[in-house]
Design brief:
By secondary structure, the chain is of the alpha/beta class. The protein contains 15 helices and ten strands. The longest helix is centred in the C-terminal third of the chain and has 19 residues.
């Protein structure tokens, strides 16, 4: 029986088509909001926080605007008022009903920020609270691990980056759904997916690493491995990994390394893979083209997309790996223990 998670992975290309078609016409509203600001503050938790990391890299590397990740407790627990004049506050929530995120967005507005809400929840409190609402079109997501709601969030943040003045071609977004379809077919048609899942099923943990535009994808894959497979997965920038934690990578703790083709960080990603395999540990590559594939023990394909939209495709082989590994371990990937679809973190 096909899991709901697998079904929803397969629904992503159409969800992306609908989301991009809906949001590109909103560029005028985004540009008007961005014109009143000079930097971007991202407000999120969980998978949405990993999407925010992608948004931050887009803001800084492509739009030339400082991007930062908010600490919601400043608003909800410390209740400190900050000067947010000139700030575009972007709150990201799949449901739009996470009280902490809505409260933090309202706090940001009260502190002088212009606000944007990214959510799949039309009519949700978040959409109602934001000056500009970017509504994704993922449809209802039934599996607890976020897949299509996550990638449509990435699409919304890519549209946001265009509105911020990023030096990119918006038409690149139109190529993503077809690439997703190719990646799903190619990944499931390879022996590598089953091989990696079988090997990961025998170890207690793994390190997931990337840098730059792919870093948020590494964090998201690590989160999914923890959520759905109960694996001790550590998501790290390879720069941080090399500062000490690389000692944990050994025969019992392999590394999953992700890279976007054409990225200025890809050379370092390949060097990390070579160092890990040179030390006798296993490396599983995702993306990065032929260079990363040749340095890895086993590799899954990556998207053939420009770097700025590569993360929308790069997570897909990782999602398929998580779903396959969960089933290999005898875990229901749709309903991991201890988790609900909407998490309320309180103050």
């Amino acid at each position: 029986m096909t899991s709901r998670m697998r079904q929803e992975i397969g629904q992503q290309p159409e969800a992306l088509r609908q989301t991009v078609a809906t949001l590109l016409p909103e560029l005028g509203a985004v540009r008007a909001a961005a014109a009143r600001t000079r930097q971007v503050l991202f407000i999120a938790r969980g998978s949405s926080d990993n999407a925010a990391v992608y948004g931050r890299y887009l803001s800084e590397a492509y739009a030339g605007r400082l991007g930062t990740l908010a600490a919601p407790s400043i608003a909800t627990s410390y209740k400190r008022r900050l000067d947010l004049d000139g700030v575009l506050a972007v709150a990201i929530s799949q449901s739009g009903r996470t009280e902490e995120i809505v409260e933090t967005l309202e706090w940001a507005k009260a502190c002088g920020a212009v606000t944007v809400g990214v959510t799949n929840g039309e009519g949700s409190p978040l959409a109602e609270a934001a000056d500009v609402a970017l509504l994704t079109k993922a449809g209802e997501e039934l599996a607890v691990p976020a897949t299509k709601t996550y990638t449509t969030q990435l699409a919304a943040l890519a549209v946001l980056a265009v509105g911020l003045g990023a030096d990119v071609d918006p038409d690149d977004l139109l190529r993503v759904p077809d690439e997703m379809e190719r990646l799903i077919a190619e990944t499931e048609g390879s022996d590598a997916l089953e091989k990696i899942a079988a090997e990961l099923a025998k170890v207690p943990g793994t390190v997931v690493s990337a840098r730059g535009i792919a870093f948020g994808t590494a964090l998201e894959l690590a989160l999914k491995l923890k959520e759905a497979c109960y694996l001790h997965a550590m998501g790290l920038s390879y720069a941080d990994l090399l500062h000490g934690p690389i000692a944990v990578v050994d025969a019992d703790t392999p590394a999953i390394v992700l890279g976007a083709e054409g990225s200025p960080t890809l050379e370092g990603t390949v060097a990390l893979a070579e160092r890990v395999t040179g030390a006798g540990a296993r490396v599983y590559g995702i993306g990065g083209g032929a260079d990363l594939a040749s340095a890895a023990s086993v590799a899954l394909p990556g998207p053939r997309l420009p770097e700025w939209v590569a993360p929308l495709g790069l997570i897909v082989p990782g999602q398929l790996l998580v779903e396959r590994l969960a089933r290999t371990l005898g875990i229901d990937p749709d309903n991991p223990r201890g988790l609900r679809k909407v998490t309320q973190t309180g103050a």
